[in-house]
Amino acid sequence: MIEVVKVWFTEHPSLSVIIKAFTWIVLILLVITWIKLILKKRLPDNSIRYKSQKGVQTVGYILVIFIAVTYFTGNIKDLGLTIGFLTAGITITLQEIILSVAGSFYIFLARVYKPGDRIEINGIKGDVIDIDSVYTTMMEIGEWVSSDNYSGRIVKLSNAFVFKGPVYNYSQDFPFVWDEFNVPVKYGSDVDLTREIVMSVAQEYLTEYIKESVSDWKHVVEKYYIEDAQVEPGLAITMTDNWMQFNLRYIVDYKKRRYTKNLLQEAIVKRIQQTQGKVLLATATFEIVGFPAITIKDERTTGK
Hints:
three-stranded antiparallel sheet; Alpha-Beta Plaits; SH3 type barrels; 8 strands
């Protein structure tokens, strides 16, 4: 029987080519269908699932056309070439998914961030609440709300973004940030008293952060190529056209930046109000020193 089939294929070479080509086409279509079923089960996002399935389907059609053309022109060489094209096509089509999976391994191995960290990636800032094989899930902060408050939106970002741009981590290695604000004081106020008020308030409310940050910063200096920095509160005075500007720079827990700034400013204002006018806060004011002469001409007295 086998000999009869061999003879029959030898006597009908064209039919043999058609059967072989048809077999490959059916095999490719079955593989494409199988991949689409896997994508349907594994990808929870409807948009990515739809685009991935369409991409695989497009690659399948291209391979079918390629098989048909090369078989009938006699240029196809072997199975390895076909499998190579199939693999390359799938890789190009699913490169975003592949990058996302690779990104999840990179995030874990390089410790780029972990659940609980506050990060900014692809222009979106928030707290990481979950990391899976494809997505990083964040609770967004900012946007239409001020400072570091939650907006209420949960954001899913592809893990592939770790390869496409910078990742800002607010809490890794050093869970503190530097913050600052200005205290405008009128000229004529007691400069030494103002300095004493601002620095005493800073020491009172920031002592805990300073103690905690000293050891953490030493660890950062030992781990990275970076010079030592001052974690104690610093005060700088700038002379402006309207007032003396006292700039307080200090270190604070990254999750308590807004809360701490409010405490400091409220305490400083209360202390200044208790100085009985020795220190006065400044506001933007304008002083009119004179008006230009204005001549009013009455047309009735000119004979017109």
